[in-house]
Task: structure prediction
Amino acid sequence: MKDGLISTEHIIMIVTATIIGTLARVLTIKEDFRQYPSYPNGYMLHLVTGFVAAALGAFAIPALMTKNFTAVTFLTVAIQQFRDVRKSERESLKDLENTEYAFRGDAYIDGIAKTFESRNYFSLIVAFVTALTMQMIDSNILWVNIVIGSIVGIIVLYILKRFSKGKTIGDIAEVKIGTIEIKESELFVDGIYVSNLLGSDNASKMFQTEGLAVVIYPHEDHYRVALDNYGQRQAALFEATRTLGVKRYHFTRKEYEKGIIVITLVPIIKDIDKLVEAVKKTPLLESVKKSHAVMDTNLVGRE
Amino acid sequence: MGRESTERPNYEILALVTLQKERVLGGKQLTLLAQDEEQQKTMVQDIAKAMKADVVKMKNGDYLVLRI
Result:
């Protein structure tokens, strides 16, 4: 009967690797807070799936060591589970589309859903590497195994975080405050025509007194390929409206000659610095990364 | 503004308020004739408020009430 039981070393290995793997999810979930659909229930949901992912990663090494090779096939279950995470995240965000100030857009939703899926792989890989390290060290002193396994797990997490960290609009463009001007009910920002939807006196007055605008200037001409993308502009507008709220009206407009993008709205919170920050920190969508300059990861160099 | 394939805003013209009788033509939208500019503005505002719509002042002096 005792032969059928799992050994103490393996239990410790599984527990340590699961804890480090779950910790990996806890540490990466904060980064996603801005994109988060719901708090605290959405938070809880991803912590639990992170825990399950970590547990799956942690079980792989003990399963191999006990010659239980077929048990490793449960990793395929993990892949299916993570795909479901992506699917459910996408569905959830799409359901929310009609209730937000501005649409996130399909491209942004796809990017967020992919991020959530990949963060589960973080948990799995970190837990797996932690367990593998503990097995390889195989010291007689229990604490040595735990400490070294945990350290290696955390290093792997750091590398994965740097690798997966995407770029933002602020990395490839300059975001400046725009000057709003209304000429005969037409809205201009820094001399760029934006909209003529301000036909009534109230609308013109409201935009003139309460409107905020930012203008995005790409650093290089080829960055326009990413910035001009409608999904990317929609994502920037979404982040702007979500940060400040919308009292009335929100517009985005691109100027063709120089590739300048205008984002303007009448916000609830009138804070231009927040607006500039929100636009700067808007992630560059994976689906619009077409140039090598923006595809470089942050694995080496600055974070 | 050029239209990307993904961008399909659902514009709908709800009303046209004009000062000139000959511009009152048929169509899906409601077309109203105002007596003067003041009345025109009031009519436009009332419709826009009721329909939660936006107003466009056209260069020829007519007003469009439309919903996006």
